[in-house]
Amino acid sequence: MSWRGPAFHHSPEDRGVTVKFRRVSLATALVAAAWLAGCASTRVGEPAAGSATAGTASSQQSAQSQVTTVDAGSPNASSLAAAEQGLAPVIYFDFDSSLIRPEYHGTIDGYAKLLRNDRQRRLTIEGHADERGSHEYNLALGQRRAEAVRKALQLLAVNDDQLEAISYGEERPAVQGTGEEVWSKNRRAEFRLQ
Question: Where are the transmembrane segments (predicted)?
Fold first, then answer.
């Protein structure tokens, strides 16, 4: 006696019900996942979106941004080396973007020339994000920004072994505070020459 599959067989109608059940289950799971992904976390001390203080807080934020420099110490050696070459030690990105803006193409070209002319030099590209978004998302966004710069330098004939791309996400803001003026200064990639 040979085995020919399961001891029971489904009728075509039963198979149709099973397929429909699986589709409904999948659709329900997708809706639940989308709903959970859409749930934004609120930081402690921030008013909820619908609360009475939320309108006051947001109007105060838009009326005046708080700007506080975090690390106002003396410039580091890599900043000085970049400045000697006339290169900016940082470039900025648009909101939720890792595209290098055209005004920074000259900066990327300058670093490429510097690295091609001195193969002993190394460059660490640090990607950063503003505080909006989850911690994990901002780390990934910072990494995409650093990788975008690394890939641009590779396209300009810089050796990959001279480059390192890392992300700090929102962990090392250049400026503390809230508002677009502050956030735009934190969406950046910094260059650290060695």
Answer: none
- pTM reported for the whole predicted model: 0.60
Q: How far apart are CA 60 and CA 56, in angstroms?
A: 6
Strands across the sheet containing 188-193: 90-92, 188-193, 123-128, 163-169
94-147 pLDDT per residue, tens: 999 999 999 999 999 999 999 999 999 999 999 999 999 999 999 999 999 999
What domains can you pick out in the chain, each with its CATH number? 76-193 (3.30.1330.60)
The answer to whether 187 touches 146, Cβ cutoff 8 Å, is no
Q: Hey, what are 4's tokens?
A: 């020919």
Is the separation of the CB atoms in 148 and 99 below 8 Å?
A: yes
Residue 97, SS3? coil
Tokens of 179: 């508002």
What totals of helices (H) and strands (E) does the chain contain, helices first?
6, 6
Q: Give 98's DSSP letter.
A: -
**Matching residue, tokens 């939720």:** 96
Q: What is the mean pLDDT of the segment spanning 69-75?
A: 41
Burial class (CB in 10 A: 0-12, 13-18, 19+), 68: exposed
